[in-house]
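Journal club prep — side note

Before the paper discussion, L.F. wants everyone to see what a predicted structure for a comparable chain looks like in token form. Sequence:
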Amino acid sequence: MKNIKLLSLAAVLGLGSFFLTNCGTGEEVAPKPTLEFIGGSSYVSGDISLAGSSGFTVGLNASHTAKMVSLKITVSYDGEPEVIDPNCTLCDTVIDTRDLRVDFTGKTRAAAGTEVWNFTLADKDGNSTTKSITITNLGTGGASLIEYTQDNGGQPLRVWNFIGPNAGAYDLKIGGNLFSADANSDKDIQDSMNLNDKTAWAARWTSRNGTTFKKVTGYSWGAVTNSSQLQAAWDDSGAEFSTFTVVKGASYMAKLRGTSTLVFIEITDVVTTASNNLDYAQFRYKKAP
């Protein structure tokens, strides 16, 4: 009987060994390329709404432990099978690199609908990574926007330190700089100062007439050219606010005086001076006629 028990114990131990062997991690998973979309106002890096026939740029930043051999960019319109744009030289590309940094410039169709753009990188063994961006195509673009970059004297548009001698406010509805004595109802933008700012200009804007603002995300100055794109930029740009610190190179939107009128603004320069209150934020803007 002792021998039988020992044999039984050996069988149980062997069975346990079998389960331990087969309940492990198994085969190693082959590494895949790492792919990220580049952010910033010049790029589309996430789902977005655009007007028909709009150009857009997607920046790709990729790396891999092995060499990547192919880049494919496809698009699916309204849920149809993916296709490669025949006019795109980048969309089916042979590569040979472990690191890739490239910009893809695309264009939406003229017709409204949904476009899913897919970006796929693969190595020679077929290990691949795909990331996608969905564009809601708004169709016809509407009225072309008018750009304003200079005042009537041919000088760049500026909002100055409000406690200095120059104009510290601006009327976005009809255009033109405003001073402290001008009506607050026209001041869509005003340099915002308080007692704590008298020794250091804050580069901060507010409004005196109910105009609100948004920080623009995903839409560059050049990409917003018509009223549909203007509305899309507003809809996709997060929460409204009434006061903010201006940043050189950043884009903002204004919704004028509680109406539906929208303005796209880009800050082209922010200049701080010492002890003379001649600080200013320089900008340009565009809106529908």
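L.F.'s comment for the group: Residues 146-287 form one domain. Keep this in mind when we get to the figures.
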